[in-house]
Amino acid sequence: MSRISMSLPRPQYVAVPEAFISALAWKILHVDRLENSTDNSSEIPMVKDIAGKPIGLLFRTNGGTSRLIKMKQTLPTGIRLVEFVDALEKAGLQIEGGSDLLGEAVLNSLDGVRIEKSGGQPASPLTPSIALLQNMRGALGTKGPPDTAMIIESLFALGASTSPELLTASRLWLRAAKHRMEIDPLLNALDSAVDRTILGSQRVEPPPLPAGLPSAESVPEGDYSGTPFDWFASAWLRLTSDEWVEALPARVWVDWATTVLRLATGLGFLWECSWNEAFARAVLKSETVSWGDVRSEVRTVLPWGSSRAGTVALDVAPQLVARVYRSERLRSLIADRLDACSAAASDFGAVMDEMRDDEGFARSLTEALSSNERVGSGKNVWEAITYALKTRETSESRADYYGLLQSNGRYLKVDPGTEWIAVVASLSCVTPGASSDVGRVMADLEKMGMRPNLSDLVALLERAGMARGSADADQGVRVESAY
Fold first, then answer.
1. Using alpha carbons only, what angle is made at residue 114 by residues 111 and 119, rounded to the nearest 5 degrees?
2. How far apart are the C-alpha atoms of 201 and 198, rounded to whole Å?
3. Backbone φ and ψ of 390, nearest 5°
4. What is the per-residue DSSP string for 116-168?
5. Cβ contacts of residue 469 below 8 Å, gap of 6+?
6. Could you tell me the pLDDT band of residue 2, with boundaries at 50, 70 and 90?
7. pLDDT at 397
8. Which residue has the higher pLDDT, 33 or 232?
């Protein structure tokens, strides 16, 4: 029963932010036929080398191999670089100084975030083909990475409350990426050149989305309204609309999209953790409760303390780590009990009553709620949450400025960057160039599972140049979209 056991695929950390969009690209573009090809002339799309070892793709990498995986760089060199530059020139791109400089300038412009102490660097997924220049094996350096695209789709489906056959996160991304190329001839030329010369074969696209798709304001409220899933669905529908694609510069749009996906992942799994605790405590109560009753008991997903508090008081790591590990124990217990449940899966009350009458199950829940034991699966969930939300520590020119959490030694606190608040507050304005107020921004933050101090929020908006009016106006302070 999805409303009890949410059945979210288990995550692992995503090492580079760009991998979130690349995961959607590999899911929606049906390149598996290319990827599994035995045609050696299409080197990049292949998943296995001659010896049968899985291949991880990354835009820039030192190469290397391990017992389980072989890394392959998709940055074109040699004859492939010559072909790439030739394709750019045929598309009308020119530069003073010759074709060598053209290739170097274009490829340098594709660099994504470089993580310190890492030997690799992804490409910024500006177009569908460029998004395919890294896969999850390459981004994570592992043979069997998690299905990040499926995780994103699951999170989106909970908030969208519409048929997944009609509306998916990946299809919305592809529609937005194609619209970007329609209005930007340069990106269209880059996409075509990558398709023909680096990937070695054209991608296979799904049918276009039907006309009359629901907007963020017309999606019906479902069970998960007022949650991070609800915020994700609304924000994603807005950001992938033609209005926002046309308003934002290409790289800014990618950064904003990546930020939304990161927030959906980190806050979505934190909400799942809070839900598992709330459900377990409801089972242990004597009175009958509804789905809505349990959901109302879900605690603040991410505590956001006042900036005037000390470092220790602002540290969210101890509380969140304990919650994640506790949740994983509870999730396993609840899932096992559901499998043995005789009540109709659609009857929430009946399922709750049957679980409540099981004394052994109740004892197990009580023990798990008070346990500090760190089960193995909790580590993966905790790393997935922190890698999604934390500002990537790098001093390179492609630094990550879109994190929500900041680490200081062993301490971890909520400390969003200026670009982060610009994304969240602008999407609260609904359309580009529009305005909202602090109350609307606060409402969206509450959906996401956070409630900052009002004065702290106003200060963040002022620092981003988005607040208009006196701070004495409290929630009535006007907020203007960054674009």
1. 105
2. 8
3. -80, 140
4. TT-S-BPBP--SHHHHTT--HHHHHT-SS---HHHHHHHHHHHHH-S-TTT--
5. 476, 477, 478
6. low
7. 57
8. 232
- Give 41-77 as a DSSP string: T-TTT-SB-TT--BEEEESB----B-SS-EEEE-S--
Instruction: Tell me how many degrees the CA angle 247-160-191 measures, rounded to the nearest 5.
Output: 45
CA 66 from centroid of its chain's CA atoms: 28
- Taking Cα atoms as reference points, which of 22, 74, 70, 80 lies closest to residue 48? 70
Task: Give dist(CA 46, CA 344) in Å, integer.
Answer: 46
Q: Name the more confident of 178 and 144.
A: 178
Alpha-carbon distance of 163 to 174, in angstroms, equals 18
Write out pLDDT tens, residues 356-387.
Answer: 999 999 999 999 999 888 877 899 999 999 99
Cα–Cα nearest to 147, from 242, 12, 318: 12
**Whose structure tokens read 């910024």?**
124
Question: What gap in Å lies between CA 314 and CA 335, rounded to an integer?
Answer: 34
Distance CA 201, CA 41 (A): 10
Helix (H, G, I), strand (E, B) or coil at 301: coil
CA distance 349 to 361: 17
Per-chain mean pLDDT for the chain = 86
Helices and strands in the chain, H and E counts: 21, 7
Specify burial of residue 459 (Cβ count, 10 A radius: 0-12, 13-18, 19+): middle
Angstrom distances, CA of residue 32 to CA of 14, 36, 151, 387: 21, 6, 19, 27
**How far is it, in rounded angstroms, from Cα 19 to Cα 258?**
9
CA 376 to chain centre: 23
Decide if 234 contacts 216 (C-beta within 8 A).
Answer: yes
pLDDT digits (tens, 9 = 90+) for 151-197: 999 999 999 877 666 789 999 999 999 999 999 999 999 999 998 88
